[in-house]
């Protein structure tokens, strides 16, 4: 499975942005999909995840109520809708797929190349 993240850009605080993660390979539909991010000078951190069936989602406390993860298995694509963006959301965002029982851990077999989100104040 190959993943291609897109949709990043420069926005102002309070704006919205939607990231996409396009996958190749039908196996994607049986995987958990997740978004992680790495801010300048910081470690990679978990943002959100969704189980393969689409019914169970997980969010980092810092994005709960503002970000929404979703997936369209017919299109082999996952999304991260980001609302009410803050300067501290500035980071490179990576999508990932696979994993086991702990979706918040970066133990994924497949990673996208990352897309940069910059939020100005």
> What proportion of the residues form beta strands (DSSP E)?
over 45%
Number of strands: 11
Alpha carbon gyration radius: 13 Å
Structural class: mainly beta
How would you describe this structure to a colleague?
Strand 5 and strand 6 form a beta hairpin. The protein is globular and about 40 Å long. Strands 2, 4, 5, 6, 9, 10 and 11 form a seven-stranded mixed β-sheet that branches. A four-stranded antiparallel β-sheet has the order 1-3-8-7, with no helix packed on it. 35% of the residues are buried. With 121 residues, it is mainly beta. The mean pLDDT is 94. The N and C termini lie far apart (37 Å). It is built from no helices and eleven strands.
Features:
four-stranded antiparallel sheet; single chain; globular; mainly beta; seven-stranded mixed sheet; 121 residues
Give me a quick take on this structure:
With 121 residues, the chain is an all-beta fold. It is 0% helix and 51% strand. The mean pLDDT is 94.
How do the helices and strands line up, and which of them pair or pack?
Elements: E1 2-6, E2 9-12, E3 17-24, E4 32-38, E5 44-50, E6 57-59, E7 67-72, E8 77-82, E9 91-98, E10 110-111, E11 115-120
Parallel strand pairs: 2-11
Antiparallel strand pairs: 1-3, 3-8, 4-5, 4-9, 5-6, 7-8, 9-10, 9-11
